[in-house]
Model the fold of this input.
Amino acid sequence: MIHLENVSKSYEEGIHAIRNMSIHIEKGEFVFLIGHSGSGKSTLFKLLLKEIEPTSGEIYVDGQNIKKISKRKIPQYRRKIGAIFQDFRLLDDYNVYDNVALAQRVIGIRTKEIRNSVPVALARLGLSERQRSYPNQLSGGEQQRVAIARAMVNNPEILLADEPTGNIDKENAKGIMQLLERINREIGTTILVVTHDRDLVEKMGKRVIIMKDGEIISDRKKEEPISET
Ligand SMILES: Nc1ncnc2c1ncn2[C@@H]1O[C@H](COP(=O)(O)OP(=O)(O)OP(=O)(O)O)[C@@H](O)[C@H]1O
Ligand SMILES: [Mg+2]
Done:
């Protein structure tokens, strides 16, 4: 699903954010990405979203070399990928329903279809009762769930989550990770999660890639999750 071959990204002289990185991530995998600040995690996501171009190397998504996607086709390519961030990035003047609906309106989906798919996306995240609420009326955990609903409403093949629990308390953070795990298990979405929460990562028993100074220093395969009995 995601395949990097000797990818490097330098922003300017001396800043090598990604160095000669090769990774292979299968369709339907759930992968944690950890590493100190500045190790290149967000840069990797920007490369996958084609917001920036690598300095060298090749990136394949769904078998396609994304370097070859023309500017005109980038919006279509990005529909394959849902993204969520630490700061939620919801629109304060839009209610929950409209925040999610907007992700469909901008790509020209008809109102009739939006009326079907938004409630489904919200129900999946346990937000059916909050459709008419505004972001400032929601807890951090709820806001992040709205952001996940928005990222998932167009059924992306890949979900990128850049520190999705960075701004929420520990209990809610666990809930968000469990929701991502469930989306991965039930829908089969390939999910990459950047996090600093080592405890949570250990409990989940998923593949863990550790980055340092733009390089992968460890790639631990999936383990059985530690049971909570
Ligand atoms: N637009 C940019 N211009 C120049 N340098 C940049 C730019 N974006 C990132 N960098 C540099 O690239 C390196 C990797 O940054 P990146 O944001 O990918 O790190 P990160 O692992 O996401 O860190 P954090 O955990 O703090 O979010 C850092 O040294 C950073 O300063
Ligand atoms: Mg980052």
